């Protein structure tokens, strides 16, 4: 078994599996949480929603505070919570800032040393981890996958969806970093992981990627109007909306939720909408 | 205003108020969280569910992980999360153990020095705090109150319900300490707060109190069969059930939930049942 089971926890009629495995992509042990609904079986495998978490998080934060399992269980949907970066590599400066290095991978494959040796979270999330899960969990149908995320993880969800057309049935995001090339968090991360070439940054920026999207885009975004990071210009959903409009892309729904902040209280409040959105795209509704 | 508002957070269409006030009962500043549903107003005030948390907790744990607000919001129910002990008194040994002193009041009025000067959580929860809330939150109807709790807080909910007949419309508990006089947690706490007279302990022990209960008892208890504290003899729900049966008390429902543990994953899974149980007793369903 590629995965070590650290614990299993009953939740909403299903099971949370807390797992660790050695990743060949990050060259580190990686933690993840996997919720499998009680209805899933090898003969009736569950489709999968990948949820990418934000800065400072581990797989546990949304597992404990997002309340997504409540809805996923009812609908027969599995949820994967990967970690937000490799752990334990201790590169110089890796743990100095909360918005760079550990817990802050931005879900790219780094091209700059020393990060490129481990910080390959795009390939890890998009390729290695689903493949490994499909080999070891016959209760999962990893051909039917949607993706979602929060904040930095919203950026990850949007960019992976846009960079791998057809791989995911839908994308949704809570308070996503929509235009990282133009916000302080993204500029710092991209400069560190990808270097100074801003043309390269565009390949990991949802607002730039959506300009060349073809067809409709099955995308739901929620942003809280009292979110200090929204107000502080880290999220820039208006830039994404403008690019969508300019490109004539149909489909994306961006909602501004009055009075909500950036926390998991926001995620949990609108979690049902996002789980149902994915479930519909995955044929469960 | 008796309360200082540290923050307000939008959640499930209502608002979480993070409050601090100076308690005359504990003679310390006390923290609490108060969820008020969006439907509450002075002309249509919400009834109140008091939720008492367990060992090691603050008001935040269940606020963040219990998901009770999701259901309470739909039903028009407010929820009060008091703290689990006074804070900041620094009595000798107060912070030495996780099962005694800070975060471990057991919701009694202590009679032993030095605890008796501050550890008066029974009077605080049953008397002072609801009275203060009624004075300052016209959106609350503090004449309609139910009580619930988890683990040590389940003990608190059961004993306060039984010690103040008619004060609460219903009581429910997740993994409660049902017979504290007979379990290590309770013996340690009662010896420390109340002294060595085991007759006095009985006045704070649900299994003893229920023996003299008159009438039916509107009580719901859930216990997880994989709960290590249940298996380790800290909860003893069978003793409570036996006392209920021997006393011929109608009403209590005790459910054993297969495979569930002691965590908030357990609380959140069955939270809807407990919120609906209170809501029904409070005339909302």
UniProtKB/TrEMBL annotation, chains A, B:
Q: Which UniProt keywords apply?
A: Cytoplasm, Hydrolase, Serine esterase
Q: Which reaction does it catalyse?
A: S-formylglutathione + H2O = formate + glutathione + H(+)
User: Which GO BP terms apply?
Assistant: formaldehyde catabolic process
What EC identifiers does the entry list? 3.1.2.12
What does the UniProt entry say about where the protein is found?
Cytoplasm
Q: Which GO terms describe its molecular function?
A: carboxylic ester hydrolase activity; S-formylglutathione hydrolase activity
The reply on keyword Nucleus is no
- Active site, per annotation: 151 (charge relay system), 227 (charge relay system), 262 (charge relay system)
Chief subcellular location: cytoplasm
Q: Name one GO cellular component term.
A: cytosol
Similarity comment text for this entry: Belongs to the esterase D family.
Q: What does this protein do?
A: Serine hydrolase involved in the detoxification of formaldehyde.
PANTHER family for this protein: S-FORMYLGLUTATHIONE HYDROLASE (PTHR10061)
Recorded hits in NCBIfam families, A to Z, give:
fghA_ester_D (TIGR02821)
Report the protein name in the record. Answer: S-formylglutathione hydrolase
Write down the species.
Epichloe festucae (strain Fl1)
